[in-house]
UniProtKB/TrEMBL annotation:
<comment type="pathway">
    <text>Sphingolipid metabolism.</text>
</comment>
<keyword id="KW-0328">Glycosyltransferase</keyword>
<keyword id="KW-0812">Transmembrane</keyword>
<feature type="transmembrane region" description="Helical">
    <location>
        <begin position="290"/>
        <end position="317"/>
    </location>
</feature>
<comment type="pathway">
    <text>Lipid metabolism; sphingolipid metabolism.</text>
</comment>
<keyword id="KW-0808">Transferase</keyword>
<keyword id="KW-1133">Transmembrane helix</keyword>
<dbReference type="Pfam" id="PF13506">
    <property type="entry name" value="Glyco_transf_21"/>
</dbReference>
<dbReference type="InterPro" id="IPR025993">
    <property type="entry name" value="Ceramide_glucosylTrfase"/>
</dbReference>
<dbReference type="InterPro" id="IPR029044">
    <property type="entry name" value="Nucleotide-diphossugar_trans"/>
</dbReference>
<keyword id="KW-0472">Membrane</keyword>
<protein>
    <submittedName>
        <fullName>Glycosyltransferase</fullName>
    </submittedName>
</protein>
Amino acid sequence: MEYYLAIASTVLLLVNLVGIAIAAWRLSPNGSPAPLTSSQPPVSIVIPARGIENFTPLTLAHAFQLDWPHYELIFCVAEDRDPVMPAIREAIAAHPSIPARILVGDDRISANPKLNNCVKGWRAATNDWVILADSNVLMPPDYIRHLMAGWRPDTGLVCSTPLGSRPDGFWAEVECMFLNSHQAKWQYVGEALGFGFAQGKSMLWHKPMLDARGGIEALAAEIAEDAAATKLVNGIGRKVHLVASPFEQPLGRRNLEEIWGRQSRWARLRRVTFPAYFAPEILLGSLPPLAFGIAAAVIADVNVAAVAAAILLAAYLPELCLAKAKNWPLSAASLPAMMVRDIMMPAIWLRSWIGGSFDWRGNTMTIGTEGSELNTPSAA
């Protein structure tokens, strides 16, 4: 028995190591310049916004400082009384040379409030290339160039995962470890192996292609617009590709309740949209190989502490090296944050199989235990 347990532990550690190696090969260090592009067509950037976040003035300012010859910004807000409106108006007034406007309204085409908010912006976009960008993305000056450089002959969509940055406090460090060396790593591994998944933070679309297949309304086919985008793109024989260097999402202060709520929500969405891919997630992180290894050591009557230390070293040292090589945020809290993340992951996975409601920026949404059951959101 100890032989099979030891093999299971070793296999899981090797899978993690191979994943890190693939991500290291696929990813460019944070801050790397975008590859040159052969053409620079005009681009529309649709930004759904709701409420004030920790770095709203900074992310707004960056959206007006892109080194692309022709682009427009379309800010979408569901209600005119939203507290983000003055900040957007101030940013537009401070950058009169950049075409920008605010569209207000709530088109209820789905139970996804973010998608509903984007509809008016998509319809108003004047260019063939459209980026759907979350308001908390910290766009580098070469933001559009990164996305356009990711487009290949077989591409249907180019995305970027969020790269957690500017953490303030331990729980923000934990969120960095969720976003960066865990989620981003595995998303880039999937893309490198030929089955990339869309990520809704930044999505570059060729508008005529999506319009020919139902337009933005087609993304209402699933609970999450990125899941619907993945299935749509795969259904037409194209692929989802990722930028070489993901874009930052500055975090600021976070607490345990926020992280638990956000990670549980994402896990439930993955469970109902891609259950076959989600189920093996219980084997990710350091706890499964650690549990198998300790069990093998106990049965074989060898030094349990030495075995546990070796497994943790094999699990975390490569991850720390990946973060260091790619210029991702690292601090003295990074290793403890990785450990806390891995302790949380099995609980989050188990929680995802239980239906229930959650709050998403003032909208109450409910995911059932079967399929993609979702109640209509209610505005708070």
